[in-house]
Automatic annotation (TrEMBL):
The keyword Metal-binding applies. GO terms for molecular function: metal ion binding; sugar-phosphatase activity. InterPro entries: B-phosphoglucomutase_hydrolase, HAD-like_sf, HAD-like_SPP, HAD-SF_hydro_IA, HAD_sf, PGP-like_dom2. Its EC number is 3.1.13.-. The lineage of its organism: Bacteria, Pseudomonadati, Pseudomonadota, Gammaproteobacteria, Enterobacterales. It comes from Klebsiella pneumoniae 30684/NJST258_2. This is Fructose-1-phosphate phosphatase YqaB. Keywords: Hydrolase, Metal-binding.
Amino acid sequence: MSSAPLAATTAGFCVTVIIPKPVGEKTMYEGYAGLIFDMDGTILDTEPTHRQAWNEVLGRYGMRFDEQAMVALNGSPTWRIAQAIIELNQADLDPHRLAQEKTQAVKAMLLDSVRPLPLIEVVKAWHGRRPMSVGTGSESSVAEALLAHLGLRHYFSAVVAADHVVNHKPAPDTFLLCAERMGVAPEKCVVFEDADFGLQAAKRAGMDAVDVRLL
């Protein structure tokens, strides 16, 4: 497959998306000084469990989880998704409290069910060759627990989560903080993402991106 950059449009933003080679490729990203990975749906298969946790928590309040409507919010912090669900259901609830309930529910579930996705082979291939970090919309307690549970935490010099920034994806703050903590200039980083919000955040941070949905 070609490794040339492609200017792609996602949700109205022109993003420099790298056409990925096979997952085991060890030379494709040599032009970058730092690699940044989204977590949910990119390096860890967590999406089905997140949906299960939402359904469990929302069932307590007689609310429903509209998966179709929530796709556009992939990569958002939990409280923002909770806010959208509350609005969709026209409920009178505190989004931060609902998000906290969902986080508590999903932590227990994920430790039993989470598995790495194939992209983790890129992480392993570049370990020790480039600094790497995780930039996620999940809370730090969840991200740190999952990465440690799977024996993956040592691959990353930094984990930047929802509670580390004020402005979340599609704002660039998450990835800019990743670059800062790796000690790498933003324009020398490449981001691996599975969501439009994340790709937009990479663009705004001045970084190239790999849309892992193309792998």
